[in-house]
Amino acid sequence: MNVLGIETSCDETAAAVVADGRHVRSNAIASQIALHRSHGGVVPELAARGHLTAIVPVVEAALTGAGIGRDGVDAVAVTDGPGLAGSLLVGVNAAKGFAYALGKPLLPVNHLEAHLYANWLVDGNRARESDDPPAFPAVCLLVSGGHTELILMTGHGAYRHLGGTLDDAAGEAFDKGARWLGLGYPGGPAIERAARDGDPARFPLPRAWLGGDEEFGFSFSGLKTALRRLTDPYRLPDPPPAPSTGPFPEHRPPLFRPDLPVADLAASYQDAVIDVLATKTVRAAFAQGARTVLLAGGVAANAALRARLGAEMDRHSETGRVPPIPVRWPPPALCTDNAAMVAAAAFFGRDPVGPPAWDLDVHPRHPLGSR
Amino acid sequence: MNGAARFLLALDTSTEQAGVALFDGDRVVELLWPAGRDQTRVLLAQVDRLLGLAGIAVSDLAAVAVAAGPGTYNGLRVGHGLAKGLILATGIPLIGVPTLAAAALPHRAWHGVVVPVLAAGRGRLVWAEIPRGDDPTPPRNGTPVELLARVIEIGAAALVTGEFPAALAADLAAAGAAVSPPALRVRRPASVAQLAWDRLLAGDADDAATLEPVYLHGAPAVG
Ligand SMILES: [Zn+2]
């Protein structure tokens, strides 16, 4: 069964064809990173406009890449939330028109659920340790620019929320940190690059361990403030503001003296973020008796996070004399927003012969597990 | 309807007054409704109903037309998104029609200057001026007071139609302009269909990939 997935919830216009929920036959993405870079983050109105001119070529590329015509599509899956309303509208309506005209089922997919299902995809170009589907129960760490969630998955479509962020998402913390270090957008990859030659122990930045009901919760706002306090002494005065060039404000990065210890600050900052993420994920996995740990979301592409998670798993299993729990993550291209994960989630998540959802709406604030 | 006929499907989600129409160069079937802000939920269901009323299938469609704005940004995105999905699945032509031209169409025979108006949200109005037999001026965006001032300048040659508050209709009439009656002020999707049909016959269509709405004066600030 070939599912055409469509994803336009934020700033990537994506379409993909996935066979039987696992085999990626095509994965087309038009990224808007260049469009938003000068603004230092995603401008919702620009994102929505970008989707509208990208959607036709992207869907065509997904069909061509899969080597199927329109008639080879058995169902159409689309992200209906959470996300930016104006952006979601483009994908949802295009998916509706496509499915309706072909007389095929239309399957709405929760974007968070889609990220988790990236772990079910088998990428034809990459040899994995195992092509077996992840075993339940799974503890999932979903980390992206919009989300930081620890989720217990006991079966397909069965979720329990273990904890989430009380303020910024992990990816947002990276974006803001990168902005404060003058490293540009998107922040996660920029900080990871800058941290490579840095000493993560040089600046002891705060970790919010929380406790009680928030045992598996996260908070990154204090960390951000601490970083700012460290960089302020190196800050140069802002140049006078340039005249505005358009309706969308330009982002003007702060300027620093050349002796700002960027590499050590980036390494220390990254370490503070991934330390808490890895430690809490491993604790949750053992506490819940998980058989798999799944990483998902754009921050899952961070190699330092993966390495720390592995090390923390080994340490925990040695101390407790218990076998380590296998940790899995999708290939980098399937960690960030894409439509293959949307098609996979639709395949496993719901009955594909349900009634046509021609009145499907967008749900910008959809929580996980809601239908 | 005759199964061999080929119809153009027109979508108009430019403002909170929405509509869909079928047109084959002669016959019109159309639905109009006050969509409010609920365009996504209703539009495709209405298209389905329209095709059912006309007794035709998607395979009977010759082209899809969409009102291209100006209008509310999210409203326009709903119409364009659905139109592009239909085009992707069928490969038929896509034609964008300026919404103000559609609003003015019923008064094509007016001797003077037709001034079609759209409600742009937050109390603002968008209008153009269409002298008889001439091209429309670029859309302008302003307050009801600014529209009134412009219509007073045009004088008795002006005929104002489209979406505007009833209080403004009285002021416009008092200023000496002709004001289209409410039943004719309603923008009809059949007008979008007819204007698109003329282009279809001329072999003229838009690029489905690059067609985008008319965005006036940039956009709201970063949200
Ligand atoms: Zn995402």
Q: What's this entry about, in short?
A:
The complex is a heterodimer of chains A (371) and B (223). Chain A has 371 residues and is of the alpha/beta class.
Layout of helices and strands, plus pairs?
The complex is a heterodimer of chains A (371) and B (223).
Chain A: E1 2-7, E2 12-19, E3 23-31, H1 33-37, H2 44-66, E4 75-81, H3 85-102, E5 106-110, H4 111-117, E6 138-143, E7 148-155, E8 158-164, H5 170-180, H6 187-195, H7 221-231, H8 262-287, E9 292-296, H9 303-320, E10 327-328, H10 332-335, H11 340-349
Parallel strand pairs in A: 1-4, 4-5, 6-9, 9-10
Antiparallel strand pairs in A: 1-2, 2-3, 6-7, 7-8
Chain B: E1 7-12, E2 17-23, E3 28-34, H1 39-54, E4 61-67, H2 73-90, E5 94-97, H3 99-104, E6 113-121, E7 124-127, E8 130-131, E9 140-142, H4 144-154, E10 158-162, H5 166-174, E11 178-179, H6 182-185, H7 189-201
Parallel strand pairs in B: 1-4, 4-5, 6-10, 10-11
Antiparallel strand pairs in B: 1-2, 2-3, 6-7, 6-8, 7-9
The complex binds zinc ion (ZN).
What does this structure look like?
The complex is a heterodimer of chains A (371) and B (223). Chain A has 371 residues and is of the alpha/beta class. Chain A folds into two domains: 2-121 and 332-349, ATPase, nucleotide binding domain (Nucleotidyltransferase, domain 5, 2-Layer Sandwich); 138-237 and 253-328, 2-Layer Sandwich (Nucleotidyltransferase, domain 5), CATH 3.30.420.40. Helices cover 38% and strands 17% of the residues of chain A. Chain A has a five-stranded mixed sheet with strand order 3-2-1-4-5, with helices on both faces. Chain A has a five-stranded mixed sheet with strand order 8-7-6-9-10, with helices on both faces. In chain A, a hairpin with a 4-residue loop joins strand 1 and strand 2. Chain A is globular and about 65 Å long. The termini of chain B are far apart. Classes of the chains: A alpha/beta (371), B alpha/beta (223). Chains A and B meet through helix 2 and helix 3 of A and helix 1 and helix 2 of B. The complex binds zinc ion.
